[in-house]
Design a protein that fits this description.
The complex is a heterotrimer of chains A (about 300), B (about 425) and C (about 290).
Chain A: H1 3-33, H2 40-60, H3 66-93, H4 102-123, E1 128-129, E2 137-142, E3 145-150, H5 151-173, H6 175-185, H7 187-192, H8 197-223, E4 225-226, H9 230-245, H10 250-270, H11 276-290
Antiparallel strand pairs in A: 1-4, 2-3
Helix pairs in contact in A: 1-5, 1-8, 1-9, 1-10, 2-3, 2-4, 2-8, 2-9, 3-8, 5-6, 5-8, 6-8, 9-10, 9-11, 10-11
Chain B: H1 2-7, H2 9-35, E1 36-39, E2 42-45, H3 47-69, H4 71-82, E3 88-91, H5 99-116, H6 119-144, H7 152-170, H8 174-196, H9 201-221, H10 223-226, E4 232-233, H11 255-258, H12 266-290, H13 294-304, H14 306-310, H15 316-342, E5 344-345, H16 352-365, H17 370-386, H18 394-408, E6 416-419, H19 424-429
Parallel strand pairs in B: 3-6
Antiparallel strand pairs in B: 1-2, 4-5
Chain C: E1 5-16, E2 19-30, E3 34-38, H1 45-52, E4 60-67, E5 70-73, H2 74-77, H3 90-102, H4 105-110, E6 113-115, H5 128-135, H6 144-148, H7 152-171, H8 187-199, E7 205-209, H9 217-234, E8 237-241, H10 245-251, E9 254-259, E10 262-267, H11 269-273, H12 276-283, H13 286-289
Parallel strand pairs in C: 3-8, 3-9, 6-7, 7-8
Antiparallel strand pairs in C: 1-2, 1-4, 4-5, 9-10
Helix pairs in contact in C: 5-8, 7-8
The chains are: A mainly alpha (about 300), B mainly alpha (about 425), C alpha/beta (about 290).
């Protein structure tokens, strides 16, 4: 084992944790309405902007303690992004519940275009960034190489873990989670049992958006830069993670995210960085061919 | 005034509450993103923009709520909730269409146009026709077969780069590449489509989305082959070996000398225009035929109900694949025209926005409607050319258009009409 | 195995995750008969149907169709998973690969089995005639060039298709609605159109999934007549799932009773009417009343 491999392992793990967070949004929405939320990548992009805006405003007021900065930024970003998730569902999905199968997909694409262009128009097309907030790193020497784990990465892993743990708790053990799971199993039946499924679907969009927002904050901290087009490719990748883990399955999304992040990091260091997106995408096609139900998903039974 | 307001308060209270709520939401959404503009690690405040947007949302929601309370609004809402407005009708078999008179006139006008148009108008119309071609191709895939292809631009790129690369490496010209590009794009479509088309429909959308982006990445990064971001030059078309340049490249005769005309750079565009017009008419004709052929009916049936189709002996994968390949090959054709018209190709012409534009054409024009697509292609490509100041808002407009069209008229602006038939016995007697 | 059966089902088993929907189901449908599959709700009738028509791949057992002068193995043409032995037997490997790539539900229909659906599945936004034309897809001239150039051969083929479509419209009494959208038809008309559409694929075995559901007594009576006419005039064998006992007892020659995923009785209507197990399955045993 050499240093580069280990270094990429750490990088891949952080990247994968973040993919997993975004994948949750795809997998949960797919679970309840059986559709891909094409605007989800853009939700992530918005949250990156919100994070930078929050940091800039807090910086203006002279706040510089990292925990407080993070607390305010997370609360602000998660809340506003959650509202974005809710509004997207309200505009692009709910009016089309009885429409053709294609209609919600196209309207979601429309929302995705609107969000991209709206951010570009209001914030400008140039790359944006945030300052490094958490400097320093653990260093280990392995043979001739150094292994460096920055505090930021550790923070990301911790935050992602906490986020997923909270979500798992909500879904598994609360009334809200039970309603979600019931709606996922059988929407009509859930409705008959008095669950307001429209509200559950809204809720799922909000949860997905907040998870994407968490990912947005974390990635922004790690890489520092982003632009209005950032949501596109990350969206496709997070979707790959969701499919890899088995779409509709929550642990699957997390697992898929980790596997994708790890393999992508190793691919970039061993083969080629320019083509790492090509790699992830080819992975998606291969999974679809050989194991469409993903790692943890159940094979689909067609209802005739 | 106040009394009047109070008297009708029961009618106002709902809409006002709705509008207030919408305003609050708009404030949360727009406040940070529109109101606080990042400047490096610093920021600027733009409260007036937020106020404007929130105002528009409140007013819009108020008007919408009020409109929905009227009798007509209620009917509309009910119809909407039932999802019954299908926008499809069957026209009687013997109804004579006005088209038999209008069509020849349009074709005639189109044929005369290049000889009276200036270069600018000509190039705009050529671009419009290229998008008509793209729209028709995607309309087969999305409108007829009901497959959402979000990476349609990839096949367009294959056509365009096919011409440039074929010329550079193999010395192939416009006329050889035209059919070859169609075949190449169709093969690429088959390779991509075959594994994915057996899945749930949404997977196709995301895989094609990824494919489009991958093609662009490869074009951008593979410097030695595709020229990277700088792109490649593409050859001009020739007429029976006659070139349209001022001087022929390797000792041939240029077009204008051969016919004893004075040199005019417009000749090239006139020629491209005429060939393109011919191809568009051909594709239009083929498409008109396709919907009356077994394969066209199978596409539409598959869009309606895949399970029923399979239970009637149709191989759903192959039927979908045929639509997907046909759409791809049309895009390949369009790509060749685009490359030769522009004289060079580079990856910036093949972004996701391009796919979105073509999809917007299909959505606006109507799924499955040919006339609608032709009109929509011209509206969406030519209008922004003429209204330059709107260029920045183009994508926003497409997005809004897609959402509104899906909510208001998922079938497009023009009613889809299905042709009625007469019983064959009666036909024999007549 | 009798020579004259059109469908043989042996040891059929179906497992959904941990749930055993079907267990050791065996029966035969004899040629030119009307066979009914009955049983209480949740007995597995529709699952049997979906296995027969290829929508589910049975986890166990054999389904053999004796149609069009050959035997079709329904499980095989759906595309079975590869087994280790396949890799040393190229021929078997080839056949498995072929059916994996090109096999599926449509091949069952091509073998001569057509079906209708419990919740009607028409092409709602296509006209009634077009619904019937789609069903004839396999029998038409599908040459692309012939279609584009509208050759005489193509026109002839289309004309024949129209004639067949109108023939079936007349059979199910829908001539007047030929040019309406399928989605606009009334419920009973939609049921009839679905039968006509299934018949347009020229099947030898027709599987009807609750054809009388939602019909009024008069319509049910007409349906019963229609089923018998179909059998008489078109050399058809019919397998039907039905809850309407009147229809079942009046029309069928043979009845198979399914309960909890197993065949509990089969025989003529007379036998079934008096079969103790059937009565128990439908009404419960006497202990249940206590």
């Amino acid at each position: 084992m050499d240093g580069i491999f280990l270094q990429q392992l750490v990088n891949g793990l952080t990247l994968g944790a973040v993919y997993g967070l975004i994948a949750i949004g795809y997998t949960m929405v797919y679970g309840v309405i059986g559709m891909i939320n094409f605007a989800h990548g853009e939700v992530y992009m918005i949250s990156a902007y919100l994070c930078a805006i929050s940091l800039a405003v807090l910086g203006f007021f002279g706040l510089d303690s990292f925990p407080l900065l993070m607390l305010f930024t997370l609360v602000f970003t998660l809340t506003v992004t959650g509202v974005y998730g809710w509004v997207i569902e309200r505009i692009a999905y709910r009016p089309l519940r009885h429409s053709t199968r294609l209609a919600p997909l196209i309207s979601a694409i429309g929302i995705s275009l609107i969000l991209q262009n709206y951010v570009q128009l209001s914030q400008g097309a140039r790359q944006q960034g945030v300052p490094t907030l958490l400097e320093g790193a653990f260093r280990f020497s392995i043979g001739d190489d150094f292994l460096q784990i920055s505090y930021t990465k550790i923070f990301i892993l911790l935050a992602a873990f906490v986020g997923m743990a909270v979500l798992t708790y909500i879904i598994q053990y609360t009334r809200l989670g039970r309603m979600c799971r019931a709606t996922q199993q059988d929407r009509k039946m859930a409705q008959i049992l008095g669950i307001n499924t429209d509200r559950v679907i809204s809720l799922v969009f909000v949860i997905g958006a907040t998870m994407a927002a968490l990912a947005g904050v974390l990635i922004t901290l790690n890489y520092g830069t982003f632009d209005f087009y950032a949501g596109f490719i990350i969206g496709v990748k997070a979707f790959t993670a969701a499919v890899l883990g088995g779409i509709g399955s929550l642990p699957g999304a997390m697992l898929g995210g980790l596997i994708l992040g790890l393999s992508e990091a190793q691919f970039s260091s061993m083969v080629n960085t320019d083509y790492k997106d090509v790699f992830s995408f080819s992975l998606l096609v291969l999974i679809l061919i050989f194991r469409p139900q993903g790692l943890l998903g159940r094979p689909q039974v067609v209802k005739v | 005034m106040k009394a009047l307001l109070m008297r009708y308060w029961p009618y106002w209270s709902g809409p006002v509450r709705d509008a207030g709520f919408a305003g609050l939401m708009a404030l949360i959404l727009f406040g940070p993103v529109v109101g606080v503009v990042l400047k490096g690690y610093d920021f600027e405040l733009h409260p007036s923009r937020v106020a404007l947007l929130v105002g528009i949302v409140i007013l819009g929601r108020l008007l919408l709520s009020l409109a929905l309370q009227t009798a007509r609004g209620k009917v509309w809402l009910q119809r909407f909730e039932l999802g019954r407005d299908q926008g499809v009708q069957v026209v009687p078999a013997h109804q004579k269409s006005l088209w038999r008179w209008v069509l020849p006139l349009i074709i005639l006008a189109a044929l005369i146009l290049p000889f009276y148009a200036n270069k600018y108008l000509l190039t705009v119309v050529i671009l419009g026709l290229i998008y008509v071609l793209l729209g028709l191709g995607l309309n087969i895939v999305v409108g007829l077969a009901g497959l959402l292809d979000l990476g349609y631009v990839a096949f367009y790129a294959i056509g365009a780069y096919g011409l440039a690369l074929g010329y550079e490496h193999l010395g192939l010209g416009f006329w050889t590449m035209l059919p070859l590009a169609a075949v190449l794009a169709a093969v690429a479509g088959a390779i991509l489509g075959f594994p994915v088309l057996r899945m749930h429909g949404d997977y196709l959308a995301i895989v094609t989305l990824g494919f489009g982006e991958i093609i662009r990445l490869v074009l951008n990064n593979w410097l030695s082959f595709t020229g990277g971001p700088n792109g490649l030059s593409a050859p001009s078309p020739t007429l029976l070996g006659l070139e349209f340049g001022r001087r022929a490249k390797d000792g041939g005769t240029p077009f204008h000398e051969f016919f004893g005309l004075t040199y005019d750079p417009n000749y090239k565009f006139i020629f491209i225009y005429l060939v393109l017009l011919l191809v568009v008419l051909l594709v239009l004709y083929v498409k008109q035929r396709l919907v009356r052929m077994p394969i066209g009916r199978a596409w539409e049936a598959l869009r309606e109900d895949e399970i029923a189709c399979r239970s009637m002996g149709l191989n759903h994968v192959l039927v979908k694949l045929s639509a997907f390949m046909l759409g791809a090959s049309t895009a390949g054709l369009a790509g060749v025209f685009f490359a030769t018209y522009q004289g060079f190709v580079n990856p910036t012409s093949f972004t996701f926005f391009e796919s979105a534009l073509i999809l917007a054409i299909v959505v606006l024009g109507g799924m499955g409607s040919t006339l609608g697509v032709v009109i929509a292609a011209f509206v969406l490509t030519v209008a922004p050319e003429l209204l330059r100041s709107f260029a920045d808002y183009r994508v926003l407009l497409f997005g809004v258009l897609m959402v509104l069209m899906m909510i208001w008229r998922p079938r497009g602006l023009i009613r889809v009409s299905r042709r009625g038939v007469v019983p064959p016995v009666a036909q024999g007697a007549a | 195995m009798t020579q004259d059966s059109i469908l043989q089902v042996k040891g059929l088993g179906m497992q959904f995750g941990g749930i055993r929907a079907l267990h050791q189901v065996s029966f035969e449908v004899s040629r030119h008969s009307i066979t009914a599959l009955i049983g209480p709700n949740g007995a597995g009738k529709t699952t049997v149907f979906n296995c027969l028509t290829g929508f589910y791949r049975a986890t166990q057992g054999q389904i053999k169709l004796q149609t069009r002068q050959q035997t079709t193995d329904v499980v095989q043409i759906l595309g079975e998973p590869f087994q280790w032995g396949d890799f040393i037997r190229p021929r078997q490997f080839g056949s498995r690969l072929f059916y994996k790539l090109f096999g599926g539900v449509h091949r069952v229909n091509q073998a001569g089995l057509a079906r209708t659906f419990q919740n009607i599945r028409l092409f709602r936004e296509m006209s009634v005639v077009e619904n019937l034309l789609v069903a004839q897809h396999r029998q038409l001239n599908r040459n692309l060039l012939a279609g584009v150039f509208n050759t005489p051969a193509f026109r002839h083929s289309e004309r024949e298709a129209l004639e067949r479509a109108f023939y079936w419209l007349e059979q199910v009494d829908l001539l007047a609605s030929a040019n309406r959208l399928a989605g606009e038809l009334s419920y009973g008309q939609q049921r009839r159109l679905e039968i006509a559409r299934a018949m347009c694929t020229q099947p030898e075995l027709l599987c009807l999934d609750e054809p009388a559901a939602g019909l009024n007594p008069a319509e049910t009576e007409a349906l019963s007549q229609m089923i018998q006419t179909l059998r008489r005039q078109h050399a058809l064998s019919i397998l039907l799932i039905e809850h309407d006992m009147g229809l079942v007892m009046n029309t069928s020659d043979h009845i198979i009773v399914l309960d909890q995923g197993q065949v509990i009785a089969e025989g003529t209507p007379e036998v079934i009417r008096n079969h103790p197990d059937v009565i128990t399955a439908y009404l419960g045993t006497e202990e249940d009343f206590l």
